[in-house]
Amino acid sequence: MIDEKIRDRLMPFVTEVNYPKGYILFSSDKLERNIYFIKKGMARAYVEVDGRDVTIWLGMEGDAVISAKGYVYGEKGYETMELLEDSVLYKISMTDLQALYHTDIEVCNWARRLIEREFVRTEHHLIGNLSEPAADRYARLLQEKPEVLQRVQLQYIASYLGISPEHLSRVRAGNKKRAK
After folding, report:
1. 46: helix, strand or coil
2. 20-54 as b/e: b if 16+ CB within 10 A
3. What CA–CA distance (Å, rounded) separates 121 from 157?
4. Rg of the chain in Å (alpha carbons)
5. Is 133 helix (H, G, I), strand (E, B) or coil?
6. Contact between 35 and 96 (Cβ < 8 Å)
7. Comparison of pLDDT for 85 and 51, the residue scoring more
8. Spatial distance between the Cα atoms of 37 and 97, rounded to a whole number of angstroms
9. 80 within domain boundaries
10. Domain membership flag for residue 21
11. Which residues are CB-neighbours of 92 under 8 A, at least 6 positions away?
């Protein structure tokens, strides 16, 4: 959630955009020079590994959609961002944001905190996928983003959790048995 004071400072630079389900917001073969915030909708980031898409991030209302490499290094990212629902996004150009950083320390600090939170979330997901059993990863996802199951295709959820769709079905069945 964006603090009201920061939101007011950003608003002159924000454009509201609407895109349909399936729209590729940005792809790994292009430099992305915008940052988006999801007002309404769902998105996923994925990378191609051995000819298949691997979902590395799931985002929803309130989340920032950003290419880390584009933001930090001004280089093409490694991920593709796809909208999973018809979506309404707030768009801010990187050029405008960078100029604002030079004149407004509070906005600069807000952006630093935003990136720090995203870094910790990414690290948490990576460590969890490397060290937790699939059932625990699934339970954590349900705890952190319970509406994901109703809004995201199971193949993307399985990919995000680092398991096959068949394994996800077994985990879900076991979870239902434990809940009874």
Report:
1. strand
2. eeebebbebeeebbbbbbbeebbbbbbeeeeeeee
3. 17
4. 17
5. coil
6. no
7. 85
8. 13
9. yes
10. yes
11. 10, 13, 14, 15, 34, 35, 36, 37
Q: Looking up tokens 């096959």, which residue turns up? A: 164
Q: Which domain holds residue 60?
A: 4-104
Looking at 49-104, list the stretches that DSSP marks H as alpha helix, in order from N- to C-terminal side. 68-73, 94-103
**Residue 129, domain member (yes or no):** no
Q: Mean pLDDT over residues 167-171, rounded?
A: 92
Q: Which residues contact 165 (CB under 8 A, 6 or more apart)?
A: 154, 155, 158
CATH number for the domain including 70?
2.60.120.10
Q: Tell me how many domains the chain contains.
A: 1
Q: What is the pLDDT of residues 95-153, one digit of tens each?
A: 999 999 999 999 999 989 988 988 898 898 889 888 999 999 999 898 988 899 899 99
pLDDT at 17 over 70: yes
Residue 80 sits at φ, ψ, to 5 deg, of: -115, 135
In sequence order, what are the residues at sequence separation of 6 or more whose Cβ sits closer than 8 angstroms to the Cβ of residue 114? 64
Structural domain contains residue 27: yes
CA 32 from chain center: how many Å?
15
Can you read off the two tokens belonging to residue 145?
């983003």
